[in-house]
Design a protein that fits this description.
The structure holds 2 protein chains of 2 kinds. Chain A is of the alpha/beta class. Chain A has 11 helices and 10 strands. Chain A has 2 domains: about 180 residues, 3-Layer(aba) Sandwich (D-Maltodextrin-Binding Protein, domain 2), CATH 3.40.190.150; about 100 residues, D-Maltodextrin-Binding Protein, domain 2, CATH 3.40.190. The chains are: A alpha/beta, B mainly alpha.
Chain lengths: ~325, ~500
């Protein structure tokens, strides 16, 4: 398989070299004429259509088309928790005609665990822009005796693993959040992994089969409105706009920040002018008032970061996750 | 009767000519897309979402629901006529649907399927209108342990699907479980049987497997020089089911509605589980169970009804709790969100007019589906008039396209071909295919819910006998497993071809 990928990418590179040579005869510096007239830009989404990542990409797409003056095609390459799509992005030619949506923790974590056999690392991506940050939250049943984060974490500290808590799968964002809580606050919960995703986890929580719901802000805003969950803490840098009454972990004295973040990246090695054009276009698209409004309707706060800052953010997440990685790996 | 008033208001909104047109176009597009193997409702709805983005909220949701119905029915058409299921849920329909085609009853099978879909869908929608809230809460009672017990009951229906030899059925069932194991371990996250290939991390694509095992192996078997099965293109008179077929379908449809609607309420169940269990139930309880597998109309009526009842039942958790209960519903939910509508109880509070219009359009969609498809049955069945060599080539083409479009990779085409060869081997060894499909669908659900249950109980097996629903279901499973040993209610017709007697 690997060899085939290599051959395929070599072929692609070869073809590009051939076409690139003939084209660059006329033009000046490399990438100056990007995007070439009528040549579409492919945006790879490593998740299935209809999901949050896909929805965000499709909202950005029309504005991006306008800014770049060419078609932008959203291509879904779902599978293996994003790994299939990420491999495609990383292996694409760095010419600006292939970009992709990258989300953490999936893109950050998958190369860290050697058993996943991911063929890419962080260095294979060139971050372009961050669009949203969706902080993790911890919630209990509305009739739970725990009224504050401290009460809950103290109880978990006294009786470790006495309460069950949802995750969306081993090494998912929620699992990392639980590991961070265990490390910082010494409070441990028994994780129940719902690999099918947030909706299965929420269902089990609503049916009172699991005690604690660990999810993202966007997952719980509707539950809070219906009075079906009591959110005790947000793992964001600041309070979430959608949940103004809920304190952050930092406010309560626990230094924990954990969030799902989504942005856009290209394969590493874009020519400078191409990168600049893409970054500018993405910034305009992400900050477009209509796009921001629609994201907000989905419960997602737009939190734009430029290429450099997104790269730093990514590196920081990698450091954070590496630290707790042994705690979330399957104990065989 | 507030509900009735609201519903009437919904009809008023949904019955504008634009919305009717949207529903009609949706049904038509959906049916055409559904006819392509590999593109099931999930992919079909997802592909056509961009089409609806610029429409107003009501119109676009109406159209998407119609597309959803259309693709579901489209999958049935190829299952019956070409033995190539378009999607997982209609795989079961191939067993008896294609057998009916061989008997020249293709038209009757398609009409029954359309009527069954209509019946199942409409009754489930009535349930949605009448008692959405309590039914939604009922679905929540099913936690991972109950889910596990329910799936166990499903797996035990393997006994019913066994036919002549229980050993052969077990071989087939184990094969299915083995195939279902491939991919990332759903709980621990470790790759299993992937041989280092990233493509296999997600497991083997179910649609590629069934298209290969059923469709391709059928064609390969023909090439192997066996006496070709004569396929009769039905004449005009046999397009419609006869009176006996209608009478025999009714109880199957009733059972199908019950099974589909009940399972649809449970988040995490997929439509294919409903259609499989409905088929299993027919094998176990139908008066004509001995004919199943040889072109019995119950084998089409039951699963097709269950499938649609499930699809509509699954909207209840979406509307009452905001939980997408199946993959298709998740895609539909994505479309809701893109339109700025949040599905869930708030939808009725904040956008009640749209909510009721959507519900009304579910009824309209069901009616349109039957109006559109029954007259078209003649057209579809005329495919069978194409000479077999040309038809086989066309089917092959469709299967390759279908396998390719699952993830847009050639890898799935090879998976399909490999499983075609496996299917051929199984046919030659006289190993039934149905048990394999059953375990392939249920295996992952069973594994997942078992491990979730044990995580909840932190390793104690107590969860399985201290929870009343779980315990009851497991006892039922035990009874089903033991029933052939006890020779409970063994009908005379079955005794003839039973090696045990």
């Amino acid at each position: 398989m690997n060899r085939r990928t290599v051959t395929a990418s070599l072929t692609v590179l070869g073809l590009l070299a051939a076409t690139g040579c003939s084209a660059s005869n006329g033009s000046t510096a490399e990438g100056e004429d990007y995007p070439a007239n009528g040549k579409p830009v492919e945006m790879i989404v490593a998740f299935a259509p209809g999901g949050a990542v896909d929805t965000a990409a499709r909202l950005v797409q029309p504005v991006l088309e306008e800014e770049l003056g060419t078609n932008v095609e959203v291509i879904n390459a779902p599978g293996a928790g994003g790994q299939i799509g990420y491999t495609q992005i990383a292996n694409a030619a760095p010419d600006g005609y292939t970009i992709g949506a990258t989300g953490s923790p999936s893109v950050v974590v998958s190369p860290l665990d050697p058993s996943r056999g991911a063929s890419y690392t962080r260095e294979d991506f060139q971050p372009l822009a961050r669009q949203v940050v969706d902080p993790a939250v911890i919630a209990v049943q509305p009739d739970s005796p725990y009224q504050s984060l401290e009460e809950l974490l103290e109880a978990a500290k006294e009786n470790p693993e006495s309460m069950t808590a949802t995750t969306t799968g081993q090494q998912g964002g929620e699992h990392f959040a639980l590991a961070q809580i265990a490390e910082t606050a010494d409070a441990s919960f028994a994780p129940v992994h719902f690999s099918e995703g947030a909706s299965q986890a929420t269902t089990a929580f609503l049916g009172k089969h699991v005690d604690v719901l660990v999810a993202n802000v966007s997952d719980v805003t509707d539950l809070v409105a219906q009075d079906k969950a009591r959110v005790l803490g947000v793992m964001g840098e600041e309070r979430a706009e959608a949940l103004p009454e809920v304190p952050t972990f930092t406010e309560e004295g626990y230094e924990i920040v954990s969030a799902t973040a989504r942005g856009y990246s290209a394969p590493a090695g874009l020519p400078e002018p191409v990168a600049e054009k893409l970054e500018a276009a993405l910034q305009a698209a992400i900050e477009d008032p209509e796009v921001v409004q629609k994201m907000e309707d989905l419960g997602l706060e737009t939190s734009y970061l430029g290429a450099e800052e997104y790269e730093q953010f990514w590196a920081q997440q990698e450091t954070d996750y590496k630290e707790v990685l042994p705690m979330v790996q399957a104990d065989e | 009767m507030d509900v009735l008033n609201d519903l009437m208001g919904g009809f008023a909104t949904a019955l504008t000519w634009q919305n009717l047109l949207f529903a009609f176009i949706g049904c038509l597009l959906g049916t055409m897309i559904g006819v392509l193997p590999g593109i099931g409702p999930v992919a079909g709805v997802a592909l056509l979402i961009p089409l609806t983005l610029n429409m107003d909220a009501t119109g676009s949701i109406i159209m998407l629901c119609a597309i959803f119905y259309g693709t579901t029915y489209g999958g049935t058409i190829t299952s019956v006529l070409l033995n190539t299921p378009g999607e997982a849920a209609s795989a079961v329909t191939t067993f008896d649907g294609y057998a009916m085609t061989k008997l020249g009853r293709a038209g009757a099978a398609l009409t029954i399927a359309a009527v069954g879909s209509f019946v199942g869908g409409s009754i489930a929608t009535v349930g949605l209108v009448a008692a959405a809230k309590p039914l939604g809460e009922l679905g929540l009672l099913v936690g991972p342990p109950e889910f596990f017990a329910l799936v166990t009951v499903g797996i035990t229906l393997l006994v019913a699907l066994a036919g002549r030899s229980i050993v052969r059925a077990l071989i087939s069932g184990s094969l299915g479980l083995l195939i279902a194991m491939v991919g990332i371990d759903p709980v621990a996250g470790a790759p299993r049987f992937t041989f280092g290939s990233e493509r296999l991390l997600d497991g083997v694509s179910f649609v590629a497997v069934i298209v290969g095992v059923f469709g391709l192996s059928e064609i390969l078997a023909y090439r192997a020089g066996k006496t070709p099965d004569a396929i009769h293109a039905p004449n005009l008179r046999s397009l419609l089911p006869n009176r006996t077929e209608w009478r025999r379908s009714a109880p199957a449809m009733a059972r199908g509605t019950g099974i589909g609607f009940g399972l649809g309420l449970i988040p995490g169940m997929t439509g294919s589980v409903s259609s499989l269990l409905s088929y299993g139930a027919e094998r176990k309880f139908s008066r004509y169970r001995s004919e199943l597998g040889h072109g019995a109309v119950e084998g089409v009526a039951g699963p097709e009804t269950a499938n649609n009842a499930h699809a509509n039942g699954a909207l209840i958790p979406l509307f009452t709790l905001g939980i997408p209960a199946s993959p298709t519903i998740a895609v539909l939910m994505g479309a809701f969100l893109q339109q700025g509508l949040t599905p869930g109880p708030t939808l009725f509070a904040e956008n009640s007019e749209i909510a009721w219009a959507i519900i009304a359009s579910l009824f309209i969609g069901n009616v349109l589906l039957i109006i559109l498809n029954v007259p078209l049955v003649g057209l579809w069945t005329s495919i069978l008039k194409v000479p077999y060599p040309i038809l086989a080539a066309l089917i092959l083409l469709f299967m390759v396209i279908g396998a390719y479009t699952i993830h847009f990779t050639v890898f799935d085409v090879f998976v399909m071909i490999a499983f075609g060869v496996l299917g051929l081997a199984m046919r030659h060894l006289d190993i039934p295919l149905a048990p394999m499909v059953l375990t392939l669908v249920l295996g992952p659900l069973m594994e997942r819910s078992l491990r979730e249950s044990l995580e909840i109980s932190q390793g104690s097996f107590e969860v399985f006998y201290t929870r009343p629903i779980t315990a009851t279901l497991l006892v039922i499973a035990l009874v089903i497993v033991c029933s052939p040993l006890l020779k409970l209610r063994k009908p005379k017709v079955l005794a003839n071809d039973d090696p045990e007697s």
